[in-house]
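User: Can you help me understand a structure? I only have the sequence.
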Amino acid sequence: MNIFLTLEHATHVSWVIWSSLFVGLLLVVTGLLVRSRLAAAGGGIIPDEGLSLRNLCELVVEFLSGLAQQTMGENWRKYFPLMGTIVLFILISNLIGLIPGIGGATSNANTTWGWAVISFITFQYVGIKEHGWSYINHYLGPSLFEMEIGGKKLHMRVLAPLYAPIELIGHLARIFTLAIRLLANMFADHTVVGVWLLLVPVVVPAIFMGLGVLVAVLQAYVFTLLSMIYIGLALEEAH
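Assistant: Let's start by predicting it. Here is the structure, written out as tokens:
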């Protein structure tokens, strides 16, 4: 039986909460281990020899930082910590869902919708923070011409009544696409692995677990990449 379901029956706290707490604990423990290594003599300066967990983590961080710089521009450092948190949480949740007897939080709608809403609020906040309330121009369509009123040039967005509802629906749809894509893929993946474990307990499930690892990494990457792209779009000036 899923150990988190067992905890749910014992404590009357949802299994997805226990699963999320477990992932959070793993992240905290990993962070403390990394900090202790960096505090040691030569920590953070002398790389490990051969293939190690530290070298692997550095490769991942370097890849993600390059991706963040490409998608979010020169301000990428401000928002990279949140993107790193998202990709690590989703990746670990995806992977632990492949372990028999342990449920992954991302196969539950509460988690995927939660992260999708966080992503949505983040890029809206970023847009308002960087551009002020002129960020609303992102919803009003292109500026067709300019008029000078009182010594100030005003962008005339005459198609705003048409563009506003379309853009609003499009932005809200990002929540649905982020949440449903992650939920559907991970729920299906974990279900397939579980079914094959029941039908053929040896060999065959290993094949699907291998594919599951690929799906877990890919879905964490896609979710984070889209979040970065949305932040990048929010950072751009409306034309």
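Now, to help you interpret it: The first strand starts at residue 145 and ends at 149. DSSP finds seven helices and two strands in the chain. Let me know which part you'd like to focus on.
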